[in-house]
């Protein structure tokens, strides 16, 4: 979508000259060869420029007569139409930029959604590996806090909850005191779970 081709620019310039009175209605314009030299383009380019103006009713081309100005008002109308096309081009370019920005934004959104899905999958998988380890009767862990036992340091496990009397207490603090029959819900490696079982015996 291009509105500023050279032959169009020349057509606009000639129309502008007509509007400004350089060429008057009924007056002949220089021949194509002269115009080609004036604008430093090929005669074919001038032919296309004049064809546009003739189609718009700005000039008339007659065999043996040449190029004659027909209507100043049509020259004004042609220039207004070109300005509107140029304005449409601006909107088109802006729309193209916005669409590119939207594609980039969609790609970023897709990337973030993928990360969230992957994280959720890993988290769900992690919760599926939660171990339930009970504080045995007579365990040395009875009456001690999680901090006293240093479970995190010794096992590498994360105690996400403690079940006591059928009631789950999530995210127990470091000062939570264990009792016989407490069930620790812990997440971590199998080796860590085995160490926890030993501690809670």
Automatic annotation (TrEMBL):
Coiled-coil residues: 88-115
Single GO BP term: potassium ion transport
InterPro entries: AAE_transporter, RCK_C, RCK_C_sf, Tscrpt_reg_HTH_GntR, WH-like_DNA-bd_sf, WH_DNA-bd_sf
Residue intervals passing through the bilayer: 50-70
Pfam families (UniProt xref): GntR, TrkA_C
PROSITE patterns for this protein: HTH_GNTR, RCK_C
Domain of life, per lineage: Bacteria
Every RCK C-terminal domain range: 118-201
UniProt entry tagged with the keyword Transmembrane: yes
Annotated ranges, domain HTH gntR-type: 4-72
Alphabetical keyword list: Coiled coil, DNA-binding, Membrane, Transcription, Transcription regulation, Transmembrane, Transmembrane helix
Recorded GO MF terms: DNA binding; DNA-binding transcription factor activity; monoatomic cation transmembrane transporter activity
Official protein name in the record: Transcriptional regulator, GntR family
Lineage: Bacteria, Bacillati, Bacillota, Clostridia, Eubacteriales
């Amino acid at each position: 979508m291009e509105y500023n081709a050279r032959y169009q620019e020349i057509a606009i310039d000639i129309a502008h000259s007509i509007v400004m009175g350089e060429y008057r209605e009924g007056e002949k314009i220089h021949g194509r060869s002269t115009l080609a030299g004036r604008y430093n383009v090929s005669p074919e380019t001038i032919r296309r420029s004049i064809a546009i103006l003739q189609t718009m009713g700005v000039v008339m081309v007659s065999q043996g007569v040449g190029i004659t100005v027909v209507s100043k008002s049509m020259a004004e109308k042609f220039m207004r139409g070109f300005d509107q096309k140029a304005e449409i081009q601006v909107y088109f370019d802006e729309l193209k930029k916005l669409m590119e920005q939207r594609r980039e934004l969609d790609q970023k959104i897709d990337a973030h959604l993928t990360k969230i899905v992957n994280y959720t999958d890993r988290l769900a998988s992690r919760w599926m590996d939660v171990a339930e380890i009970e504080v045995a009767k007579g365990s040395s862990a009875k009456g001690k806090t999680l901090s006293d036992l240093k479970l995190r340091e010794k096992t590498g496990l994360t105690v996400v909850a403690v079940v006591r009397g059928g009631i789950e207490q999530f995210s127990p603090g470091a000062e939570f005191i264990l009792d016989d029959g407490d069930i620790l819900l812990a997440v971590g490696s199998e080796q860590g779970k085995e160490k926890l079982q030993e501690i809670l015996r």
